[in-house]
Amino acid sequence: MDTTPLANGRNLLEVRGLTKVFGTLKACDQVDLTIAKGEIHALLGENGAGKSTLVKMLFGSLEPNAGEIHWNGQPVMITSPGVAKKLGIGMVFQHFSLFEALTAAENIALSLADDTPISTIAAKARALSYSYGLPLDPDSLVGDLSVGERQRIEIIRCLLQTPDLIILDEPTSVLTPQEADKLFETLERLRSEGKSILYISHRLDEVRRLCDSATIMRHGKVVGHCNPRLETPSSLARMMVGTEVKNAERTTASVRGEELLSICGMSRKPAGPFSMPLKNIWLSIAGGEVIGIAGVAGNGQGELFEAISGEALQESADAIRIRGKSAGRMGISARRLLGAAFVPEERLGHGAAPRMRLSDNLLLSRHTTDGKAFVSGLGVVKSGAIQKAAQRIIEVMDVRKSAPDPEAAALSGGNLQKFIIGRELDRNPAVMVVNQPTWGVDAGAAARIRQALIELARNGSAVLVISQDLDELFEISDSIAVMHNGELSKPIPIAEATLERIGLLMGGAEPGHPDHAKEVA
Amino acid sequence: MRIELVKRPERSALFAALSPFIALGLTLIAGAIMFSLLGKNPVEALYYYFIDPLREVWSLHELAVKAAPLILIAVGLSICYLSNNWNIGAEGQFIVGAIMGSILPVMFPDFQSWIVLPLMLLMGIAGGALYGAIPAYLKVRFNTNEILTSLMLVYVAQLFLDWMVRGPWRNPAGMNFPETRTFSPSAVLPEIWSASGRANWGFVFAIVAAIALWFMLSRTLKGFEVLVLGQSPRAGRFAGFSQSRMVFFAFLVSGGLAGLAGISEVSGAIGQLRPTISPGYGFAAIIVAFLGRLNPLGIIAAGLVLALSYLGGEAAQISLGVSDKVVRAFQGMLLFFVLACDTLILYRIRFVGASAAKTVEATQNV
């Protein structure tokens, strides 16, 4: 692999044998990476492959255990993000670090750490944003901006420091397809100006479209360098995962059963200053059906989940019906007793208590529904029965773990998610509501989870999947509705749904809502 | 240069178990230094402090007398702290429990029957629980900080007791001393084994309460609810548990146990109400709860250790002539070292150079 000589004038960054060890885990093992000037370089890999660790070392947030980094041919020690910025490395994180109660310009000023007046910064940011086709009003409050606009702030903030290398971590995961196109134009422009970009992603199509070269990581090691334009998506996927990845098999919905979950004109006031209100939501799901809800993050999906699960109650009991019973005023336990099961977006701290063992986390969501099996008359927990059930779920869902009954936080994201989904499937729920079923989950586990959801529906249950991953929704849904700005569009049958049509709805350009309102009125 | 605490990737089980003992050892070392600064022989001082009180049977009884309220209060506090409710006002709940429990023997001294004592104990529990319900209600209804409200209510209770024993409840035959009439024999909590010393049934209550709460925490659904809501409130809500009900549960249990400790102390060890009925049991119990690692069984051991520090303080006062404030200093050092050891199990200290790494923390925790 080591073919390019050091101090080659073309290369901006050369990394040799970079290694980072956490305990016994080699998160990065002898990683080599070369980024030329003026190229967009993809860093591909599944979750947990070591991409983030590598990037954190490049940005100075983590110290490598071994290996060297050459910048413009000179060996450098990047001991902190401050050093990285001084060298000319800028980073746009996947999770933004912005203060919602401040304006865009104020947020930018905070990261510059000098005494430039805010008005100067605002003017510079405005000029820069328009010249790169990322229009941004520096005086707007971050809390009022969409996720895509917030990302622009991060990008502008990064560009203001005139970096030579820009690291972007999964930038399109929060964008609509149309917004992503805009971003690609900007990136191509930066490339033509001679900037280098390290582009982290697991979306193969966009990597093939955008990137000049790619480094692929698996289990902490570099498994290949390639030109993505010469590869097919499946050959890239094979390199990433190591084996062939199966898509979930979708059989067509055989018989539409009776209505199991219905939401009738539900509205909800915003719970906090920056949370989304829900506006007149109508939805009906029958047994045997998988309905997907698409949408850019932060358009009310979390609020919708809380409302359906009963963590937030409705004003009217009829706003939500589960298996024909009015459930709007019922808490989450009562809704579970009606046959509903819920899987929230956040695994640690919401779907599972991080410091508790898996068996305790089984009890977490099932102490009421399986009251007799798991809890004796006096409230004493039957730990034997729970252990047994936990082991059953672990086997069925193929949860990989290091100890017999480890703490939830000790599992990888994918394995914990398999356990949480399995915990609910084990009950054979009539209604299953899942928010982001495969967020941050490796491809193998994701396929397993999607298959399980489809099978559940085909056995007569109603399944509602809220997801930002359009590929996933197209793979498993019978119809797709779109959330935008707290409103839900009418579900589009999968046969009529196209990426473009869903994308437009996600951007709010063609609201399906009025159309839908007419029908119910 | 500045100092940072960086989270350790994994916790050492060995050091987690050793931590209370390390804290005790460090307290002894710091205590020895303190005594030598006071001009005393540290070895002799520590001997009087920690060994001498254990040499005779009657002083073991005294140990049980002092340990009983500490254990009773601390096991209740462990429920509070495990469920993330910071009740600092056990001293006040102790006092109000003592006042409520004393209504019968003080106001109706002629009512003498076997039922008086059980009624007193129940009223003591009710008094402490109701007083604990005040900060709980304020927290649930108005989102006030329970640390402040429960602490402030301590001073209210102390001043109320002071006024009661100087005013309405003063002993008519007591030569104007600020104290109530002494309780009739039927209102006195009996000694366990009166032939050898003073220890009363309060100590039995403490052990029973500790075992009962240990069972609840480790074996029942209610205990699971306490732990889940304390560790991850959002997961607790997802489980269908109510945060507000848990606030009340924790405060009522810990208030009730503090109230029981209060009436047991007054009825068993003192025999009347006085302006001061507690040498700070309610506060020392906070140390006991943490030294016992919030585990009711560990709290039994920790309560005995802290009780020893009270006895040792008295002994040191007599034999060495040091101030009784030394007791407070010891307890303070002990709490400091317990918390410091616990913190260092979870975090390590890192020294950061002046200019470097401004945002290290932020990005590492992403």
From TrEMBL, chain B:
The keyword Protein transport does not apply. It is found in: Cell membrane. The chain crosses the membrane at residues 12-38, 58-81, 88-108, 114-134, 199-217, 246-263, 283-308, 329-349. Keywords: Cell membrane, Membrane, Transmembrane, Transmembrane helix. The keyword Hydrolase does not apply. It comes from the Bacteria. GO terms for molecular function: transmembrane transporter activity. InterPro entries: ABC_transp_permease. Its main location: membrane. It is a multi-pass membrane protein. GO terms for cellular component: plasma membrane. PANTHER family: ABC TRANSPORTER, PERMEASE PROTEIN, GUANOSINE ABC TRANSPORTER PERMEASE PROTEIN NUPP. This is ABC transporter permease.
